[in-house]
UniProtKB/TrEMBL annotation, chains A, B:
It comes from Pseudopedobacter saltans (strain ATCC 51119 / DSM 12145 / JCM 21818 / CCUG 39354 / LMG 10337 / NBRC 100064 / NCIMB 13643). This is Hydrolase. Residues 32-165 form the SGNH hydrolase-type esterase N-terminal domain. SUPFAM superfamilies: SGNH hydrolase. PANTHER family: SGNH HYDROLASE-TYPE ESTERASE DOMAIN-CONTAINING PROTEIN (PTHR30383:SF29), THIOESTERASE 1/PROTEASE 1/LYSOPHOSPHOLIPASE L1 (PTHR30383).
Length: 359, 359
């Protein structure tokens, strides 16, 4: 018995030293947080909501979540670590903690961004994690994505003590504002960089800005004003899932016209809501989705009749495939669902950009 | 201020009544737990490990996790709920709580199993959740999968008070034993029924039995003896990820020969380990995977030379696609990764079954 205890004590001392060796022989730096529509006072917030006092509280709160934000740097370190703090909130049942309050890293390889590792959050609000190690010492371009569903309070990137690290500019060109629901914010991607706007950015080299506000994308007038003031080459509106048919009827035109008046030539792309997979059985859910999608189509047709130009429409047909396995909980796409959405979205969005000579 | 508090109190009372209305006006029943290789004393355990005193502690523990287990029933209820208890453990950072300690339900529709909803675990060890509601009252065949990574302590299915519910037999034919790592157990599927053996069962109508034991699939002699005693029409060995090259060299032949001696005609399918996505940068991880896969191939070739018949091999080539987005954390496939694995596994496994006239 004593022998077992002794072995356990020695093992825990060994493991502590190992963790220390892995994470603490590093120099840590703070880097500029990128991926926002405009600069913000608090570098970890997506929008300075103090400038928009009338937007709903839930939207204000959700814009403190760091969905879509990232840091960009070059380093020749063989190992990359991070220390970060978030709020005390814990992950929701339909998300991994890595996606909700963790990190992931991508490294440029043969001209493409390639996944290299994750930052696993611990049980407390501050975590330290090695993202990737045992690499060669060539200089690499790196992106680290911040937590999707938590407020990031601090972030430092750690490299080998003798390694070089320098801040890099935002590698993505142009600016595409994506305003939408939890699906835009990233529920239920399995890690931060798999939220669909971020995947589109890495795939295309274009800057898709995540203005996903969980269950609160309801096109309120004050939010429409805020979105319209974000400088954009294109606006993608994926806000149908959260809005009732009545809200879609009341609010779509104001949102679209407001964006158009602030941005006379930017194409506006409206996306129908994806099906809710449990809605095939739950008749009330199924009916709501059908009514939402009919109403948004009607609004778009009326806007076209009213001569609002450069509007585009992505229908919900087959967005999630036909095997019913592409959501986590019936509502939120899993990574299979996001992959299917991207296969449809990406060429349609790129076609619009080409047509308008934006790329 | 008082007014706000009063509104909050009234709202919380209203919500409590609503939850009560949704979940408690139900009759609850216990059902036989299916999906095991053999009957067990504790109906929620996958194997009676008391019969195998010499298997490693970690394997004993992991076989108490309810991965791959399910209940099967018919009901005309318009709403289906569940009450269940698990251990006090909480989800790991690379899994959703729904997958780790929650439930999901599938309903037969047009001859196919179709996802219909999830059981969301709460913060305590016992939960109550409506899986699906607002359905028509036709009789339906249903499957509810149990938590992948926790020990289930109890499970009751709830239906409308005036509805009928009756136990159904296991809808899957034959028995295919899948012995393997965390990837077999279901990390990082986003809900229980998306673990790959369960998806294969629903896709094919065949009973794929989940003997995934997280990080502990190391082919120990005592575990090999246990697996060989599980009655199977086919054995799938996906245990390379957890075994070191030396363990693969030492242990593969004993495992395969033991299964063959207990089951003279059952085909045995050996799968190479999927790539570890961070191993493209982490040279030490990359090298280990390469050595594991070379060693398992060598062992298989030697077994064939030693005249062990009916061995099959699934290579790791392109199991996860080539965009490096198909894992949650570099090691564990996300649902996109599982989908790609299934696209390769399913036809290869079905071909073996057809060749041997098992189907």
């Amino acid at each position: 018995m004593y022998r077992t205890q002794l072995i356990l004590i020695l093992l825990s001392i060994f493991l502590s030293f190992q963790t220390l060796a892995q994470t603490s022989l590093k120099k840590y730096v703070s880097l500029t947080v990128l991926g926002k529509a405009k600069e913000t006072e608090n570098m970890f917030h997506r929008v300075d909501t103090t400038k928009y006092p009338l937007i709903p509280k839930s939207v204000k709160y959700l814009l403190t979540n760091s969905a879509g934000l990232f840091v960009s740097f070059k380093t020749n370190s063989t190992s990359i670590a991070a220390k970060w703090c978030t709020s005390d909130k814990k992950s929701s049942s339909n998300m991994t903690a890595i996606a909700y309050e963790g990190l992931d890293i991508y490294i440029k390889k043969d001209g493409k961004w390639q996944f290299a590792g994750v930052g696993r959050p611990g049980t407390k609000s501050c975590s330290e994690s090695v993202l990737v190690s045992n690499m060669d010492s060539s200089e690499k371009e790196c992106l680290v994505y911040l937590p999707l569903y938590d407020e990031t309070k601090s972030l430092e990137i750690g490299v080998d003590e003798n390694a070089k690290i320098s801040e890099n500019t935002n590698p993505f060109q142009k600016q595409i504002i994506v305003y939408g629901s939890s699906i835009v914010q990233g529920a239920s991607a399995s890690r931060p960089g798999l939220a669909y706007p971020s995947r589109l950015s890495r795939n295309t080299g274009l800057n898709f800005v995540n203005i996903g506000v969980s269950g609160s994308a309801k096109m309120e007038k004050e939010v429409a004003d805020m979105v319209s003031e974000m400088p954009g080459d294109v606006y993608v509106l994926d806000c149908v899932p959260n809005s009732s048919p009545a809200e879609i009827k009341e609010r779509t035109k104001y949102l679209v016209k407001k964006i158009r008046s602030s941005n006379p030539i930017a194409p506006i792309i409206i996306i129908q809501t994806i099906v809710r997979e449990h809605g095939y059985f739950d008749k009330s859910v199924g009916l709501r989705v059908q009514q939402q999608n009919e109403e948004i189509k009607r609004q778009l047709e009326e806007l076209v009749k009213e001569s609002v130009k450069d509007l585009y429409f992505i229908s919900a047909d087959n967005l999630l495939g036909n095997d019913h396995e592409a959501t986590t909980d019936g509502t939120h796409p899993n990574d299979l669902g996001f992959d299917r959405m991207i296969q449809k979205f990406q060429p349609e969005i790129l076609n619009v950009l080409k047509k308008h000579k934006i790329i």
